[in-house]
């Protein structure tokens, strides 16, 4: 029957009448968005409503999407006036198993009677009951229900679904319940970025709190030396989890890899590959793999080669996406439905051609995201929008947020003034507390416009009604820009519209003909399945891997970390006698002679190893020859105490740090790109000792007084995130391991502190570490630490709650208190 409806739908789509009716709907839709006069004929509504019901029955996904677009536009344009339309929408959503939209429908149109007949009511109630589970407070889509059922049955699950289908929420609900109700269980949640650690850990805590489990479960975001709670959920990047597994033998009951397409990411893929293999060495967890694209489903075949996954996939999102071409011509804006002949002209009502001005004209009254390729472009767009808004918003929360930015970053940082008008920017080089503050304000409707970079592609949950795109591309330092991967552009556009809030999201494609890459939204023929980066680089650039094995790979590029990780993994596999098995994997396309030559090179390199294989594995991004050289250097030192890493609060910290990092720089192990070695050490000292970002920024501004405040703030945080928390931490982790190996071989007791852990956290005080592990941001932990007497420990949520209830934290900034309240209340 679906094939019949597909044939009928194609006939409708090709008809002249449908073209005229859909154009009229689109014209009214755009005019309502822009606040212009609009009116649609009732007969047109009737015809389109009939058509979309046929479209929903089709087995062609593109036709079903057209049906979803039509229905969402009709509800927006005339849902209030045409009550029958809402009743029909209720029926359509029910037949499609789309219960989140039924919930939204009844919230938006509470005065409409949805009952048609007793038979229909009973049938709908039955369908809704089937899609309702006790643990979740709203009915599920058919996809979500199937995913939940597989999880409950203990299946290993691999799932692919677009952003905004609610897959992560379902999985986290399941994990929290299972760990809480167990006699004791460990769950590992692997996320690609530090920003997602805080987002996911906060979501886990909120779920636990809602179920009354918050005191039963420990949420761990950093490796620690003391014992873990018997019920612990680890929320970590692959780097942190890998380090945790090196320090401790842990057996996980559950493994959830979120945004799992990163197995094919150039910079993260190899370490994720290694981390997952390390997890499997310690047990047989229930494995849950989640990704936005079906092209990555087979990327895990070799890692989990004996696992039979239950596949749950869908290309359908409850939130329709409406693509709108947008172009400025003289004093007008011309808008057209993507790949249609419809065209609507509205007055521009502003001077110039800035993207921020276009967003303000078309997005007023709604939530909006303006995507930009660079951080400074975000700031420019936010300023352009802010300049068009004449009055500050009457919002105490925005005033508090602006004051926080001025106080804890700098008073001249433009985000402070933007926030007062409900405008913000969001990008990687922002402190975690500020990013989370912006995200919270946006979700609560306080912020109307956010200009942001590819943080949207990393899974950060920032949905909005409208998304504005202009020439999206991947900026490459010192190189030509590249096209953004399809999976990332899908993640970005997936932020247009929010489940349970919008029936659809608008994606405005601004000046599409001028884009460097214009085929983002073209229907593409089936492409080859993605494979892990480990295999892809071996296939594409085996010579680069050989250079890494020889220690000659170009150190001036960040690509060195990936290539050295591959080289180290090959050496480990050679030692374990699994190298031939790896090179015989189906994903490897190397010719037999090339494999033989590669194995020979691995064998020669293995014979040159001085460091032990455990140390090599523990430092996956540092080449073995670099480790050999550093090992020889340390072995030749007479008094190793002169080369020990001091306590973080030592007065010798900067001097010793610069001395050691300068040597690491000479060996090609620490190569900062955002700053010099001495200045990176200046910032690192303040960072490790828990000084406020404000004081660190002032140090930068004194060092570069002619630079704009925004530039200085960005550069400080980029230095901290890249040169210090990643590169310096990795280099010092390697140094510490080699130093310890040598002292043990000499039977010498020389105290050297694991500074890399304190660098990752951003402080060294025990209470500070406790606060960060609870889930608070670095800046919040710094402020709490500065206000309390040093002899008050905060080992858990309950202690923090007691201090809060006793008003011991009353002098904190309101934004700091709100972050605490989100955890406790």
SSE layout:
Layout: H1 2-13, H2 16-33, H3 42-56, H4 61-78, H5 83-95, H6 99-108, H7 118-130, H8 142-152, E1 157-160, H9 167-181, E2 185-190, H10 194-210, E3 218-220, E4 231-236, H11 238-247, E5 254-257, H12 269-281, E6 286-291, E7 310-313, E8 320-329, E9 332-337, E10 344-347, H13 355-363, E11 368-371, H14 375-388, H15 396-408, H16 415-420, E12 423-426, H17 432-443, E13 449-452, E14 466-469, H18 486-493, E15 504-510, H19 533-540, H20 542-550, H21 559-575, H22 579-583, H23 592-607, H24 613-618, H25 624-635, H26 653-666, H27 677-688, H28 693-703, H29 709-745, H30 755-761, H31 766-774, H32 778-787, H33 797-805, H34 814-824
Parallel strand pairs: 1-6, 1-7, 2-4, 2-5, 3-4, 5-6, 8-15, 11-13, 11-14, 12-13, 14-15
Antiparallel strand pairs: 8-9, 9-10
Helix pairs in contact: 2-3, 2-4, 3-4, 5-6, 8-9, 9-10, 11-12, 12-21, 13-14, 15-17, 19-20, 20-21, 20-23, 21-23, 25-29, 26-27, 27-29, 28-29, 29-30, 31-32
Protein name: DEAD/DEAH box helicase
Domain Helicase C-terminal: 354-539
Domain Helicase ATP-binding: 148-294
Strand order of the largest sheet: 10-9-8-15-14-11-13-12
Q: What percent of residues adopt helix (DSSP H or I)?
A: 40-55%
The overall pLDDT average reads 91
Q: Between the first and last Cα atoms, what is the distance in angstroms? A: 52 Å
At the third CATH level, what is the topology name of the largest domain? Rossmann fold
Overall shape: it is: globular
Regions with little confidence, pLDDT below 50 for 5+ residues: none
Largest sheet, in brief, is:
8 strands, mixed
Give the amount of beta strand, in percent. 5-15%
């Amino acid at each position: 029957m679906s094939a019949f409806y597909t044939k009928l739908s194609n006939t409708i789509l090709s008809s002249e009448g449908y073209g005229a009716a859909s154009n009229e709907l689109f014209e009214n839709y755009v005019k309502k968005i822009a606040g212009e006069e609009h009116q649609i004929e009732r007969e047109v509504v009737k015809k389109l409503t009939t058509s979309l019901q046929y479209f929903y029955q089709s087995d062609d996904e593109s036709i079903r999407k057209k049906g979803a677009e039509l229905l969402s536009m009709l509800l927006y344009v005339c849902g209030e006036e045409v009550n029958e339309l809402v009743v029909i929408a209720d029926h359509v959503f029910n037949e499609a198993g789309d219960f989140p939209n039924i919930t939204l429908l009844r919230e938006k149109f509470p005065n409409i009677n949805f009952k048609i007949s007793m038979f229909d009511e009973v049938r709908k109630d039955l369908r809704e009951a089937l899609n309702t589970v006790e643990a979740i407070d709203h009915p599920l889509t058919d996809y979500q229900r199937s995913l939940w059922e597989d999880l409950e049955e203990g299946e290993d699950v691999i799932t692919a679904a677009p952003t905004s289908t609610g897959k992560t929420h379902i999985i986290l609900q399941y994990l929290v319940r299972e760990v809480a109700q167990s006699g004791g269980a460990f769950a590992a949640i692997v996320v690609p970025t530090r920003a997602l650690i805080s987002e996911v850990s906060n979501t886990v805590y909120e779920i636990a709190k809602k179920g009354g489990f918050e005191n039963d479960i420990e949420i761990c975001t950093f490796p620690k030396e003391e014992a873990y709670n018997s019920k612990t959920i680890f929320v970590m990047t692959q780097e942190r989890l890998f380090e945790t597994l090196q320090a401790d033998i842990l057996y996980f009951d559950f493994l959830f890899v979120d945004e799992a397409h990163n197995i094919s990411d150039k910079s993260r893929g190899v370490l994720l590959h290694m981390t997952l293999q390390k997890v499997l060495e310690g047990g047989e967890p229930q494995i849950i793999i989640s990704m936005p694209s079906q092209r990555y489903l087979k990327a895990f075949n070799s890692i989990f080669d004996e696992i039979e996954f239950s596949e749950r996939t869908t290309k359908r999102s409850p939130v329709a996406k409406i693509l709108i071409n947008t172009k400025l011509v003289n004093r007008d804006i011309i808008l057209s439905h993507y790949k249609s002949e419809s065209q609507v002209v509205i007055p521009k009502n502003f001077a110039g051609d800035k993207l921020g001005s276009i967003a303000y004209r078309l997005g007023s009254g709604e939530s909006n995201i303006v995507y930009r390729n660079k951080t400074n472009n975000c700031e420019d767009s936010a300023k352009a929008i802010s300049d068009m808004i004449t009055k500050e918003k009457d919002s105490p929360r925005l005033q508090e947020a602006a004051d926080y930015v001025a106080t804890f970053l700098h008073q001249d940082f433009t985000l402070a003034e933007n926030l007062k008008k409900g405008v913000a920017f969001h990008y990687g080089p922002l402190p975690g507390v500020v990013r989370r503050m912006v995200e919270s304000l946006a979700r609560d409707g306080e912020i109307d416009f956010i200009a942001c970079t590819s943080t949207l592609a990393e899974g950060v949950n920032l949905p909005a009604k409208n998304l504005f795109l202009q020439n999206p591309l991947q900026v490459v330092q010192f190189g030509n820009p590249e096209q953004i991967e399809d999976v990332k552009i899908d993640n970005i556009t997936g932020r247009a519209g929010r489940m349970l809030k919008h029936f659809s999201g608008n994606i405005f494609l601004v000046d599409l003909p001028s884009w460097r890459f214009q085929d983002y939204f073209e229907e593409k023929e089936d492409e080859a399945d993605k494979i892990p980066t480990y295999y892809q680089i071996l296939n594409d650039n085996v010579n680069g891997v050989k250079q890494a094995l020889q220690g000659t790979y170009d150190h001036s590029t960040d690509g060195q970390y990936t290539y050295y990780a591959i080289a180290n993994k090959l050496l480990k596999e050679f030692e374990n006698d699994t190298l031939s098995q790896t090179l015989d994997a189906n994903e490897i396309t190397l010719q037999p002679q090339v494999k033989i030559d590669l194995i020979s090179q691995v064998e020669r390199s293995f014979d040159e190893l001085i460091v032990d294989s455990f140390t090599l594995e523990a430092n996956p991004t540092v080449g073995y020859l670099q480790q050999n050289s550093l090992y020889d250097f340390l072995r030749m030192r007479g008094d190793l105490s002169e080369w020990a890493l001091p306590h973080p609060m030592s007065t010798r910290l900067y001097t010793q740090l610069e001395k050691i990092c300068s040597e690491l720089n000479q060996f090609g192990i620490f190569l900062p790109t955002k700053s010099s070695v001495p200045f990176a050490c200046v910032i690192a000292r303040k960072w490790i000792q828990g000084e406020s970002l404000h004081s660190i920024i002032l140090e930068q501004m004194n060092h570069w007084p002619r630079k704009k405040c925004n530039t200085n703030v960005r550069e400080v945080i980029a230095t901290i995130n890249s040169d210090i928390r990643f590169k310096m931490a990795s280099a010092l982790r390697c140094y510490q391991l080699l130093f310890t190996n040598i002292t043990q071989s000499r039977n010498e007791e020389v105290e050297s502190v694991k500074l890399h852990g304190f660098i990752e956290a951003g402080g060294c005080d025990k209470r500070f570490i406790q606060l960060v592990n609870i889930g608070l941001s670095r800046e919040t932990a710094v402020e709490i630490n500065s206000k309390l007497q040093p002899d008050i420990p905060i080992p858990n949520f309950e202690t923090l709650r007691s201090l809060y209830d006793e008003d011991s934290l009353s002098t904190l900034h309101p934004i700091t208190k709100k972050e605490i309240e989100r955890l406790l209340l």
